[in-house]
Design goal:
By secondary structure, this protein is α/β, with parallel strands linked by helices. It folds into two domains: 1-25 and 109-360, NADH-ubiquinone oxidoreductase 51kDa subunit (Rossmann fold, 3-Layer(aba) Sandwich); 372-442, no CATH class. Helix content is 29%, strand content 19%. The chain has helices spanning 122-131, 144-148, 172-179, 181-195, 209-219, 239-247, 267-279, 309-315, 356-359, 372-376, 383-391, 395-400, 411-415, 422-442, and strands at residues 22-24, 30-34, 44-45, 52-53, 58-61, 70-71, 76-85, 91-99, 158-162, 200-205, 225-230, 262-266, 285-291, 299-304, 323-328, 335-336, 350-355. A six-stranded mixed sheet has the order 1-14-13-17-15-16. A four-stranded antiparallel sheet has the order 2-8-7-4, with no helix packed on it. A four-stranded parallel sheet has the order 11-10-9-12, sandwiched between helices.
């Protein structure tokens, strides 16, 4: 069974919502839409307080190279423009809209008919993906149109689609592959044309046998698309690990997948690309898993962006009494929320409600030099050392010891018998070293 070679762990899967069909969340009474929901530069507002907007209308425009358009997910009146905290924990400029009806932009095709024929050229595909605000829905939210713009001197020969969803608990991609498989494969074909490649490989962990079988059956009707079953091992869905597993190529330190001739995109992103190109539909909604061991109704919701997290939790049966922590994302790489009044954004793949027992960290002990963190690190780093130098603000050593290669998967943190907060320190180290590198480049 294909997998990556170095490190990895096997957390309990807890895919509690894997058999729950996608449920459309009712339209909310109001939404709060941050105008920066992507990696890169902030978008520029193009609307004002008091304006009336439709579903799919542009709210903020991408003016920088790495940036993405943001659209309204509802129709109604803009009540205010203010800053608010989103699921990342940072305050961002946001558009607050009071919902009135559900009037969509006339250009959006709302029919269920599946359109297979791809009429747009490579250049037109890239331009439209940019216009529709498509970003990576696996969590990184990198603007998709930028991935398709291969730098001069580089060449892609394969598109890799990430259907792994290795984070415990999360099942949104699984449900998209099962319920929107044909549309997703059209989206893969569109991405192939936009990238200029003849081959695509979809990697799915073999704990999703139904999705593997379903997409293998459908892929026979599409040229150049292969579906591959992968061994269940975390973090199989990390970009560099997935590339190693599927095509046995290693992305050099500090480089992007295009260095080894490939581009990686998420399964949910492929579906969003289908809707953007074939239905003229901007990215204003996505599938979000709401789950947890004490959640009454673990669910997968199709959610309009800007809806408050507490509305999703209420729909899943309410906040359990034994809640200890609410996390945006999965338990390995997600971040805990300090408020449930934060909006769902493009990068919100799941809301995990952990019990008090699950969420309580063990008492931190001294490092016993057992080496487990080194053994499980999929990047071949020394997490105990990197955490130590970051804790002591020795950022020169952190840079020299390749802290920027850390993918923040949390495998080291998960396996540490001393309960040391390795991932926390690694994130601090990456943040500071990243700042130092950027300042150096600007001087």
């Amino acid at each position: 069974m294909k997998t990556f070679k170095i490190g990895g762990v096997h957390p309990e899967e807890n895919k509690l919502a894997s058999n729950k069909a996608i449920e459309v969340l009712p339209i909310p009474q109001k939404v709060c839409i941050p105008i920066t929901q992507h990696l890169g530069a902030p978008s520029t507002l193009v609307v004002e307080k008091g304006a009336n907007v439709k579903v799919g209308q542009l709210l903020a425009k991408a003016d920088a190279f790495i940036c993405a358009n943001v659209h309204s997910s509802v129709s109604g009146k803009i009540s205010k423009i203010d800053t608010t905290t989103d699921t990342s924990g940072y305050r961002k400029t946001s558009v607050f809209i009071d919902v009135e009806g559900d009037e969509w932009e006339e250009s959006i095709d709302k029919s269920d008919a599946i359109i297979k024929e791809i009429k747009l050229s490579k250049e037109e595909i890239i331009a439209k993906i940019k216009d529709m605000g498509i970003v990576g829905l696996g969590g990184a939210t990198f603007p998709t149109h930028v991935k398709l713009m291969v730098p001069q001197g580089k060449k892609a020969d394969v598109l890799i689609i990430n259907g792994v969803e290795c984070e415990p608990y999360l099942t949104s991609d699984h449900r998209v592959m099962l319920e929107k498989g044909e549309e997703m494969l059209v989206g893969v074909s569109i991405l192939m044309k936009g990238l200029g490649v003849e081959k695509a490989m979809i990697g799915i962990e073999n704990n999703k046998a139904d999705a593997i079988s379903h997409l293998q059956n459908l892929s026979g009707n599409f040229n150049g698309i292969e579906v591959h079953a992968l061994k269940v091992k975390y973090p199989q869905g990390a970009e560099k690990q997935l590339i190693k597993a599927l095509i046995n190529r290693e992305v050099p330190a500090g480089k992007l997948p295009i260095e080894v001739g490939c581009v990686v995109s998420n399964a949910g992103t492929a579906f969003a690309v289908y809707e953007a190109i074939q239905k003229n539909k901007p990215l204003f909604e996505r599938v979000v898993t709401v789950t947890g061991k004490s959640v009454k109704k673990p669910s997968n919701f199709m959610v309009r962006l800007g809806v408050a997290v507490n509305e999703l939790i209420e729909r899943a049966g309410g906040l359990p009494e034994d809640t200890g922590k609410v996390i945006s994302g999965g338990p390995m790489m997600g971040k805990s929320l300090n408020s449930l009044d934060v909006p769902v954004v493009k990068g919100t793949s799941g809301i995990l409600i952990m019990t008090q027992k699950e969420s309580k960290r063990v008492e931190i002990q001294n490092c016993i030099r057992c080496g487990k963190c080194i053994t499980v690190c999929p990047m071949g780093l020394e997490p105990y050392l990197l955490a130590q130098v970051a804790e002591n603000a020795n950022f020169e050593t952190a840079e020299n010891e390749r802290v920027m290669d850390c993918i923040e998967c949390g495998s080291c943190h998960y396996t540490c018998p001393s309960g040391r907060p390795l991932l926390d320190y690694l994130r601090v180290g990456k943040n500071k070293v990243g700042q130092i590198i950027r300042n150096r480049a600007n001087n």
